[in-house]
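Hi again,

Forgot to attach this to my earlier email, sorry! This is the prediction with cobalamin bound. I've pasted everything inline since the attachment limit keeps bouncing my files.
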Amino acid sequence: MMRTLSPKELALAVDVSESSLKRWADSGRIRVTRTAGGHRRISLPEALRFLRESELELVHPEVLGLRDLNVVPDEERGAADLDERLLEYLQTGQTEAARGMILWRFLRGESAAALCDGPIRSAMDSVGRAWRSRPDGIFIEHRATDICLQALDQLRLLSEVSPDAPTVVGGAPSQDPYILPSVMAATALSTEGIRAVNLGPDTPAKTLATAAAHYQAPLVWLSLTATDLTRVAVERYFGELYDSAGRRLTVMVGGRSRHLVRQLKSERIEVGDSMAELLAFARGRLGAG
Ligand code: B12
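Structure tokens for the complex follow:
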């Protein structure tokens, strides 16, 4: 069960009066449900949506159970070099600070897609360049990946997706071990209300086809990153995918090795460079604006 808040709790968290909060609820600025006894209740995702769209500061995040935010010090909130701070947290293994920074930026109004395409992508790029030159590079790379996964999972947990929303499925193909890009895809979609089922790395074509059929997915995403993927292997993968699912499947491909599909002529394969593009394409497919 998703946690709900009383107007009093949310008022306390953002440091406004309970009566202001009730007024906003009654005017429809905040969506509320009612308990059997008629008391207003606000779901946590709805409280966060309201916060993201308002100018209000979350003064007491612990009231909402978002303790990570307390580790973003006040002086950091105005800093111009937020992206560099995030890189430092990822490089030095400051898990709570990195999670707090990403959550704080999300609540300040940045989308998950923008956070993935911007600061997280560029930080992981820097982390990835260090592995050759430092003996501890691979350890840092694995640790940073896990910290990003924790931060993105947190955003996913805080999003609200209707159970009967259309479902987009995706993952990375066989022999591709990369976890983060597909978690980014799932996070970018679900934080915008699009249900996303992530099958993760090393997903056989038949499995992806089974999931697409199960959910009658209007779109499948495929993230290609592994350095040893070949054009032939990718073509074989698509062959199997279409054999199992039928050619009507619409697939959006992205990731560092996305060039491998360039030869694959099909109007049902779209290539994208970013989570923003995935989100825009998914919205178009779902007719969601
Ligand atoms: C973590 C990591 C690993 C980990 C992965 C852990 C895990 N389980 O996930 C492990 C240890 C497996 C690994 C191994 C290797 N790695 Co590595 N790895 C990385 C690193 C640091 C981060 C990867 C990551 O998660 N990136 C985060 C995502 C966000 O970045 P992204 O892929 O660019 O995604 C963006 C877009 O491409 C797009 N996108 C992604 N997917 C999709 C999907 C759709 C549909 C759309 C529209 C868009 C889209 O949106 C994203 C956000 O903007 C990268 C550095 C980097 N720059 O990414 C190196 C990197 C990819 N690895 C590299 C190398 C060389 C290797 C190894 C060969 C090292 C070795 N000798 O063992 C092996 C090869 C493994 C293999 N089979 O390919 C090189 C690749 C160089 C090249 N030739 O392209 C990189 C670039 C590092 C470097 N600069 O040298 N790696």
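The CA atoms of residues 28 and 118 lie 33 Å apart. The mean pLDDT is 91.

That should be everything now.

G.
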